[in-house]
């Protein structure tokens, strides 16, 4: 029995009039971090990443990382607030802590430790998962972040 292949359909993003910026092509396959919806300036992410590197070390024990969660929340919030569309969806400090608990505190701590360990070689890219994991949003939506150049 012969099978026919279907032609591929591509999606194009609608742009507002006067929006002349050029977006890099979005890969059709790959990790969720390659499919992004929000706009966060690269400088804001780098500033947050620098703060995260100062406050989270891969050598920190669980209690030290728990003590640094307020710094994590503030750093990530500072970057996410740069997108006006996200601002109204951001979690309060209490909602952030609830999201961490719901996600699994130990899993979140281990994730932060791994990000810190990778930040020497990957720079701000090591922390991208933190901006995308939903813990910083009040309803934990699946909002993915685009780092503008």
Notable traits:
7 helices, 149 residues, mainly alpha, two-stranded parallel ribbon
Task: Offer a concise description of the structure.
By secondary structure, this protein is mainly alpha-helical. The protein is built from seven helices and two strands.
Task: Describe it.
This protein is mainly alpha-helical and 149 residues long. The protein has one domain (32-148). 47% of the residues lie in helices and 5% in strands. Strands 1-2 form a two-stranded parallel ribbon. The radius of gyration is 18 Å and the shape is globular. The model is unreliable at 5-37 and 140-149 (pLDDT under 50).
Write the layout of secondary structure elements.
Blueprint: E1 38-41, H1 42-55, H2 62-67, H3 69-80, H4 84-87, H5 93-103, H6 105-122, H7 128-132, E2 145-148
Helix pairs in contact: 1-3
| Global outline | globular
The SSE string, one letter per element, is EHHHHHHHE
Radius of gyration over all CA atoms, rounded: 18 Å
Structural class call reads mainly alpha
Range of helix content: 40-55%
In the residues, how many domains can be counted?
Answer: 1
Largest sheet: 2 strands, parallel
Mean pLDDT: 76
Separation, N- and C-terminal Cα atoms: 50 Å
Question: Low-confidence runs (pLDDT<50, min 5 residues)?
Answer: 5-37, 140-149
The proportion of strand residues reads: 5-15%
Number of helical segments with 4 or more residues: 7
Report the count of strand segments: 2
Main sheet: which strands, in order across?
A: 1-2
